[in-house]
């Protein structure tokens, strides 16, 4: 199975064939925002008029079949915090209103989980047996803190999921072609996962090029997840299609990943 591109009118997003719940890894395309935020910016506090962001969420909600009032967002801090949420946790589109965390899980039908990205790694989860879903934001710090594996274990504890039943999809991020780091990043990853992660790091002179997708996939395998789909898109290489924090030096909008808990199981 593969992660494919979906288009609905002007809207473009990516979806994983193995995830049975409505979901999307958004791109920049299909919204109403203008200028540097063109066009599907989904962040409220980067300078885009709020009415544009609200319209962008309405476009995405229509495409995926969820109610924006049931959307739960993340106030991300590059942590390993996983929150279990229900519809009562939905607080609108201002992510500053939410408790700090970098992953969300739920089993309440209709609830939509959202995480923001602009180079970091988005990961979506669906258990077709229990109906539970999850969404994680994994920068390199979150990756080193095993946010992927901890999301799986949170789904096991909260909903009785079996890791082997969970299907995961890893979306667009800054790829190993572009994610240049100093040695502190591989050191942190080796401390978390052992020397095996050097298979996913390329060295060049005194710099390191890290494949966060594959390292998060390793974390998921260690947590017992067998079904993992991985996008090959790099947000920095494809900066016309995705926002890249590195490419824009922070002068940007935001894309993200969303998954909706559906009625019944697949």
Q: What CATH first level would be assigned?
A: Alpha Beta
SS content category: alpha+beta
Query: Which percent band covers the strand fraction?
Result: 25-35%
Coarse shape:
globular
Count of DSSP strands: 15
- CATH fold name, please? CNF1/YfiH-like putative cysteine hydrolases
Q: What is the radius of gyration?
A: 17 Å
Strand order of the largest sheet: 1-2-3-15-7-4
Low-confidence stretches: none
Number of domains: 1
Helix amount: 10-25%
Order of helices and strands: EEEHEEEEEEHHEEHEEHEHE
Q: What is the number of helical segments per DSSP (H or I, 4+ residues)?
A: 6
Biggest β-sheet, characterized?
6 strands, mixed
Task: Give average pLDDT, whole number.
Answer: 97
Question: Mind telling me the CATH superfamily name?
Answer: CNF1/YfiH-like putative cysteine hydrolases
The CATH architecture would be 4-Layer Sandwich
Question: Terminal Cα separation, in Å?
Answer: 16 Å
Write the layout of secondary structure elements.
Elements: E1 3-8, E2 11-16, E3 23-26, H1 50-64, E4 71-72, E5 82-84, E6 103-106, E7 112-117, E8 121-126, E9 133-138, H2 140-144, H3 147-159, E10 167-170, E11 180-181, H4 184-193, E12 201-204, E13 207-210, H5 212-222, E14 227-230, H6 245-248, E15 255-260
Parallel strand pairs: 4-7, 5-6, 10-14
Antiparallel strand pairs: 1-2, 2-3, 3-15, 6-9, 7-15, 8-9, 8-10, 11-13, 12-13
Detailed description of the structure:
The chain has 266 residues and is α+β, with helices and mostly antiparallel strands. The protein has a single domain (3-173, 228-260), classed as CNF1/YfiH-like putative cysteine hydrolases. 22% of the residues lie in helices and 25% in strands. The strands form three sheets. The chain has a six-stranded mixed β-sheet, covered by helices on one side. The chain has a six-stranded mixed β-sheet with strand order 5-6-9-8-10-14. Strands 11-13-12 form a three-stranded antiparallel β-sheet. The longest helix has 15 residues, at 50-64. The protein is globular and about 45 Å long. 51% of the residues are buried.
